[in-house]
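Please review the protein record below. Tell me whether the encoded fold seems credible here:
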Amino acid sequence: MENKYLGFGKFNRLAIVPALAIVAILSGCTNTLDLNDAQGKIKDELSKQLATDVKSVTCSGKVEVKAGQTFNCQAESDIGTIPVEAKLEDDKGRFSWKAKNVLDLSLIEQQIQQGIKQQLQVDVKADCGGKLKVAKAGDKFECQVQDDGDAKRSVEVTVNDDQGNVNWKLI
């Protein structure tokens, strides 16, 4: 009787081992996001939103399709490398994303013009050299201002944070 039990036990162990391996293989297979598809969608939408040529978008790693998962990408464009932060909205692979560190230079030009008008009572035209600029907190760049008498000055702009808030000063 003891041998039959041992034989039966050995039989069960052999039958169980492959079943556990199959369960382990199936549970190890997680649903991952098709990053090629995500990269293409981000590239197309970012190009439209920024009205600039986005050459490529690269997202790193494997992303498990699970609501709340985040992943990061880099978009190569005419204005530089744009960091993109994405987040899965559900377990079906729908995601939202936002470009980071992209400054709208026309808003900064308006801020400079209004600030100089308030401080010095002089109308100036500000030019920061384009429509958009990629810059992160702590970065500095120069804009030019010119008054009606063609006097020109430089303005140093410092990026304060990732929301696009800046400080500027005449130099």
